[in-house]
Design a protein that fits this description.
6-stranded antiparallel β-sheet, 3-stranded antiparallel β-sheet
């Protein structure tokens, strides 16, 4: 494998973006989970998206699913988070890294009853923000028909599988 073709051909520029650790979360779910948009796909030229997911003590997280168009990676920052590897759930802790290629069965959840946090990395940088925000509206009580829910999931490259 070699380096890809150049993405920039200038002499350098001031373009770094900083998001302080104490920035207000972009999404706060009714159960207390919080999502920080660290690097949106649009800000990385579609190369990747990076999000910090902070779990509250509530048991929560998506069941097994896969993506057709994006890879997803998890880096556990703190606490204990269970990741489904396609065969079953396993606990992971601070410093553990999990990569799931397109088509890979996976899920994640906080089942510990304590807070936990992780980084979510998507590549390429699909627009995951409307997905996170739609889930927030659903969790807050917005009503969707089964057809609307299915269309939302397909639009956001989420395909559920039975556990």
């Amino acid at each position: 494998m070699s380096y890809p073709p150049p993405l920039y051909d200038g002499d350098g520029e001031v373009s770094a973006r900083v998001r302080p650790n104490d920035a207000t979360p972009d999404v706060v779910y009714p159960n207390g989970n919080r999502v920080h948009y660290l690097a949106r796909g649009e800000s990385t030229g579609g190369l990747f998206g990076l999000y910090r997911w902070e779990f509250s003590e509530a048991v929560s997280g998506p069941g097994p699913h896969f993506h057709q168009r994006i890879a997803e990676s998890f880096y556990i920052l703190g606490g204990e988070i269970e990741i489904h590897n396609g065969e079953g759930w396993s606990p992971y802790r601070s410093g553990d890294f999990i990569h799931v290629p397109p088509g890979g069965l996976h899920g994640f959840r906080n089942a510990s009853g304590a807070t936990a946090s992780m980084l979510l990395h998507f590549s390429p940088g699909a627009p995951r923000e409307p997905y996170f925000e739609g889930l927030g509206r659903l969790a807050a009580g917005e009503q969707w028909t089964p057809e609307e829910y299915e269309a939302f999931m397909v639009e956001h490259d989420n395909f559920w599988v039975p556990e």
